[in-house]
Write a structure and sequence with these properties.
By secondary structure, this protein is mostly helical. It is built from eleven helices and no strands. Helix 9 crosses helix 11. The longest helix is centred in the last third of the chain and has 15 residues. The protein is elongated.
Length: 181
């Protein structure tokens, strides 16, 4: 027979709201060896209704951290959970500057996930500042030869009419030329 914590973990993985409505659940319960709470699991699996419910509870620690210092926001970004990211970013209690053990914030997690549609969606919804994102990641994208990310970031910069320093454009051109040959 499963313990209450194991049943809660299973309910979070499945996005089962009825489990939360039928039982008195502490939304800050540690569920696994990674020290993740229900909001971590719901965010990681993209369960929008469960995330909404957990955010509606005043006692939910929206910035709870697991053993890698991931918050639910960082996990949602690393898993490219667009709808969950939108909910978390709209909540004023969520720390948008939180960083994990590797000092990466949610924008960095999105960058490494290489999910252009999520980045573009959050930008369109004004939940991700284009200038900060482009400035922070264009150089890195060029250095690690993420040509498609470079192109995406430059198109975002052009669409927003962001002023770019000459050295960034030169780096991008250098990367384009070296990749072609």
């Amino acid at each position: 027979m499963l313990s209450h914590t194991e049943r809660l973990l299973d309910a979070c993985r499945r996005g089962d709201l009825t489990f939360f409505h039928n039982k008195k659940v502490n939304p800050n319960t540690t569920l696994n060896i990674k020290l993740q709470c229900p909001l971590h699991i719901a965010a990681m699996y993209g369960h929008v209704a469960l995330v909404k419910y957990l955010l509606s509870l005043n006692e939910t620690d929206v910035n709870c951290r697991d053993n890698s210092k991931f918050t639910p926001l960082l996990l949602a970004a690393s898993e490219s959970q667009k709808d969950v990211l939108e909910l978390l970013l709209a909540d004023p209690r969520v720390d948008k500057t939180a960083r994990d053990n590797e000092r990466e914030d949610f924008a960095g997690a999105l960058f490494h996930a290489n999910n252009f549609s999520v980045i573009d969606h959050l930008h369109q919804r004004k939940l991700l500042a284009a200038k900060e994102f482009v400035v922070n990641f264009l150089d890195i994208a060029c250095i690690v030869n993420k040509l498609s990310m470079c192109e995406f970031l430059l198109s975002l910069a052009l669409a927003e009419r962001l002023e770019m320093e000459d050295n960034r454009i030169k780096i991008f051109i250098h990367v384009c030329l070296t990749r072609r040959f």
